[in-house]
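Just curious: can you write a single protein's sequence together with how it folds?
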Amino acid sequence: MNSNTLCALFIGIDPNRAATLTSAFHRLGYICRHTMVEEMGKLGSAIRDDSPDLVLFDESQSALELNVCLQAISNQQLDLPIILLSESDERLPDHQIVDILPPDKLERAARSCLREFWALQSRRALAHTRQELQAAEHRSEQILLQAEEPIAYVADGMIVSVNRLFAEYFGFSDPDELDCQPVIDLIEDDDQDRLKSALRSVTPSDSARVTLQGRKTDGDSVEMSMKLSHAVLDEEDCVQLTLHKESEDGASNVAAIDTNTGFALAMRFVQQLEDVAAHGFGGNAQGTFVLISLDRYSQLRADHGYSGCSVIMRDLAAALMAEFPKGQFGRIDGDLVGILLSNTTADEVLERAEKFCASVAQRPVTIGDNSINYTVTIAIHSLGKSKQTSGVAMVNNLIGLCEQVREEAGSNGIGNDAALYVRAKQQLNQQSDPLQAFEDAKTDNRLQLHYQPIVSLADEEKQYYEVCLSLKDRESDEISGAELLENFERQGKSTELDRWIIVEATKQLSQSRQAGKNTRLVINVSGNVFHDKNLCSWLGVAMKAAGLPGDTLVLQVNAATAGKAIKPAKAFITKLRDLGGNIALRSASPGTDDAAALKQLQPLLTKLELSPKESDTLQEAITATQEAGSKAVVTGVESAATLATLWQLKPDYVQGSYIHSPSSEMDYDFGAD
């Protein structure tokens, strides 16, 4: 039955009042299907046949005795709430009669029915959930006792239960030895980040699969394929880890290898590709997926047969292993070879691939009595740290790119070249995962920074630029750079975008300082920086490497965000000031919340995002800011008249398009003012 449809028994309710109640339910957005009971003999059948959600009983109009009805309902042992319409004040609600209302308050009666209806629905859902939980717990117990594969349960990264096979797999004689042990202790160091990523990706609707190097108690390393899925154990959510065992004689490994090239077969390689696409290469490593396609494969097969093509593929395999000795290889199809390369950039691989194409074209192969040459076309896909598209989708995209290269070459199916896959421009929106949206924009080279000067009205020698994130060629329906930063802030964890902004901004700052300019930056970042314990130490290393003084950097955060995280904000600002840097706040109003943040954090600058047209409000904000020991920055200077008005209000700094619009370069002449 639909969630907005309830079934009721009306006892002592005449048709006219029943129609009034039905209309009241309609106005509230619900449908009430009702059965009118006038005889005791029909009550039992109505309860059995109609499965009612509640009973509405008018004591003064009913031909049935209330106590008799209560006993009949109690005998059915049903959770059936009763709402009583009565003039009496003597009766009190009990476990059956949940509410007592005057008979003429039908609108209130309808609302009371809805309240009890949803309470009943909640009780039913709870009972159903408890049944499912018991069944899940039973299944988990059976899996642990009877499973033929090693299984463990992990909660918050800690092992909470394992079966005997899992313990033995890692060399433990007793499963209890693994209780409360961090699961990553069983994994080799290089793969620990990949397991953490896989654990984070598991939800009730999504499982994960990952190939890892495990670490046994004797120190031996073992490769294992692990499936991760959501489970419930002892009424707590956890992740079930299932290890897939391979035969001791290595038959499964042999079956997964192409005997002609020695590369993994398609199924095994694509599984590895899916694994890397979902969880990366581990740590902060980036890499590439390379697809090598043999040109004119159909013609070669027609001219030289399968055996001749096998000779060519063996030669190609040898050349590829010599060129990319650290790659993970797979034969995806008769004419397709895939390579996974870690710790490489797509641009680096593209350069090597172009040279490889040229060298292969000059590499003769002997087939029978004939010596022939062959060519290949190579497509390259960059793999970042965030989750990528599926492995199968990447293969299909690169196959399409190889065909495109051949068409553009116009050489009768010969590409003999390499190309980098670039996705179509992403439509970034507010619903996107912010980290994925950031990676998409970065991959498409759409992220850019804009610099807008902040000009002193008091002959201040320091030259400030505000740094804001922007997107190249942004469509009207797309998320803006500021909104992307806000989405990261709402997510509340990652500082990936903040670090990218800081790195790119300091590159420009270093160039400006080397040109002899006294430039300083006010960089807009998210409030997530307050919770990143490593950011300040990372920032100190980055500033030192760039040869920049600490006081050239001011990080700007929303005042409301800082006000909600005063304790971590204070700790972060202390570390930042130890480096010589400082903090700035963006304040949309001079309200008490922002005023409290100003007083406790004492920012170097406070950007007042108020219209200069509201001179009285703006004057109060400027005064409050300066009294708090911060310098006031007023934005929105769009004309000479506005600037003249602001001279009277005496802010410390001003900013706006009349002075200089945001630019991709730090090209403002501060000496002209």
Observations:
- The first helix runs from residue 15 to 27.
- The domain at 5-126 is CATH 3.40.50.2300 (Rossmann fold).
- The chain has four domains: 5-126, 147-244, 259-420, 434-672.
- The chain has a mean pLDDT of 84.
